[in-house]
What does this fold into?
Amino acid sequence: MHNGASVPHNKSILARPFAVLVRSALFNVLFYVNLIGHMVLALPGLVLPYAVLHAFLRSYARSSLWLLRVVCAVNVEWRGLENIPEGACLVACKHQSMWETFALYAVLDDPTFVLKRELIWLPLFGWLAWRAGTIAVDRGARLRALSRMRARTQEELERARQVVIFPEGTRRAPGAEPSYKAGVVYLYSTAGVPCIPLALNSGLFWPRRSFRRFPGTILVEALAPIAPGLDNRAFLQRLQSVLEEATARLIAEGRGQP
It folds into this structure.
């Protein structure tokens, strides 16, 4: 399923370095104007019912995807969404780009993200992230951070939300050696809900540490749920196996796009 109609274009022209630079610069300006505008307009959501803020989050995600498609000819194809159950679950998502930090709001019913605590201190963004129920983690607190993360995750799961965690903790380039952290295992072992591995190749088109956006189609695939109840070692082995295999397949498919 695509996020909208494909933009007719001659990709060979759009992929030329100068065209990529111009389109990327224009997109970045519009993207941050859109972000700041949504944050300012969403400020009443700090005191109004959560549904108001949720509507702004979804609007921000969908409008950003629209800008990316129209300005940079970057589409998205969602696969396997039928594998995401209704209600509470964990979503273990590969993290290659800033893209997935907002795009998932466009398709998940009511997601919340596990993120580093420092982001909550940012003006506007931090206030709204707190109101949206994001799960802030103090990476320096170690065991205390895990305990706090577990408690906050349970609170959000009891609200029938989808808790999104990046198993490697930070963005990694497409094809980089995997480095899974203990947090995803700890949450799975204590949450008692299915875990949905989410593979993607966003880093090919929205690279980390770069302002360039390359034309093409971002592929995102929700894999079969991992039911609760596996021991920690078996869960981690299964998660890493299926997620890395699917991600490698999507990267190869993305690199082979005409």
Remarks:
- Residues 74-255 form one domain.
- Residues 93 and 217 are 18 Å apart (CA to CA).
